[in-house]
Amino acid sequence: MPVAKVEKFLRVRGKPKRENLRRDNAKLQRQRENADRENRIKSRFLASMSHELRTPLNAIIGFSELLDQETFGPLVPRQKEFVTNVVQSGRHLLNLVNEILDLSKIEAGHAQLSREWISVPAMVEAVSAVGQSLALQQKIDLKVWVQPYLPQIYADPMRIKQVLYNLLSNAIKFTLAGGTVTLRASRSADGVNISVEDSGIGIKPENLPRLFREFEKLEPADGLAREGTGLGLILTKRLVELHGGSIQVASELGKGTELTVRLPLTGTKGPNLTEPELHEASGLPMPASLVAHLRGAVNLADRQFKQVALLVAKLPQFSRSTPALWAQPLQAHIRTGDFLGLADENTIGLVAYGAPESIEKALSQRFSDLLSRTLSEPAGPVRVVWYPFDSRDPEELLKKALSAG
């Protein structure tokens, strides 16, 4: 058969198939567009309803708390019991509404992160302090371990606290009295790992794939019902992913569960700072690392219309020879957004955000108080220089700070 006839035959035979393929593709495209539109409508509806519900709920909770605190007079035991139930139920419902609102914002692409440099030890300390009261109520031993001198991460502090609290409260909820919950924070190759491990009831292997589904409440292995919305873990996963991180779960039925959050140092939007070079004795960042962080801080300040302060103070003689005695507790108590390091071998430096007119005195006093609480001898006077007022060059700022006064 001539080649031309063969080609014509194949075109004729293939034409219906191509037309069917185009129709199928167009149908799939319409279905995807319809699904996306319905998903957006659902998210807008949930967000709108959540806002409408929160206003009366806050009023109900507020007035119920006034009654529960017996602000307007004593209650009889039965009244006290009923009012306490109203407060607890209101808080539970408000928590559900807030989780729905957060999840709908993330799914609709409207969630925004207020990123700043976060001290991981300070974040873990704040969350574990809240978790400790929950653990005591359930007669559970809460243990905390933080690797010394963890690097800061560039993240939203409120959202990271929310993630850690969700994981910690979930672990406590599914651990029986006398059990143990352990909160750990450690360095990874490209960021920070924060894990929560419990000695609780564990998860059935067939239920693990369902763990991060919306409104999915798994049947507990021990058969006991527990309060919950079914949104805590999926919201936690979405928030972690929003930071460019990931979450992993490992569980053994009857022995417990471990959830590990992996967070990058800077995510996808923060300034790309290099790993700090640490002083061999104290473990604090070296002067070059302090300048590198200061450079990243001023770049961030330019984008967010902030000022940056560099505070320095001379160290007492004893601390220069035995820095490890004081460096770790000092590093653990710096506030969110601060960066602590050596300005030179005899001087410590602190990078912080602020406004000169309003907080210079308070910031200097806070740093001085922090040093005095940590060192057994008073440090030298605190000196402060500001970006962009004293200099726009980080190295020049450090020189001015060291030569001031």
Task: Give a verbal description of the structure.
About 1% of the residues have low confidence. This protein has ten helices and eleven strands. The protein folds into three domains: 105 residues, Helix Hairpins (Orthogonal Bundle), CATH 1.10.287; 149 residues, Histidine kinase-like ATPase, C-terminal domain (Heat Shock Protein 90), CATH 3.30.565; 117 residues, Reverse transcriptase/Diguanylate cyclase domain (Alpha-Beta Plaits), CATH 3.30.70. The protein starts with a helix and ends with a helix. α1 packs antiparallel against α2. The longest helix has 66 residues. The strands form three sheets. It has a five-stranded mixed beta sheet with strand order 2-4-5-7-6, with helices on one face. With 405 residues, it is an alpha+beta fold.
The main β sheet shows up as:
5 strands, mixed
Helix fraction, binned, reads 40-55%
The overall strand count is 11
**Amount of beta strand:** 15-25%
CATH architectural arrangement of the largest domain = 2-Layer Sandwich
Low-confidence stretches: 268-273
Please give the CATH class of the largest domain: Alpha Beta
Coarse shape: globular
- Stated plainly, the CATH topology of the largest domain is called Heat Shock Protein 90
How would you state the average pLDDT, rounded? 77
Q: Taking Cα atoms only, what radius of gyration do you get, to the nearest Å? A: 28 Å
What's the helix-strand series?
Answer: HHEHEEHEEHEEHEHHEEHEH
Annotation field: number of helices: 10
Please give the domain count.
3
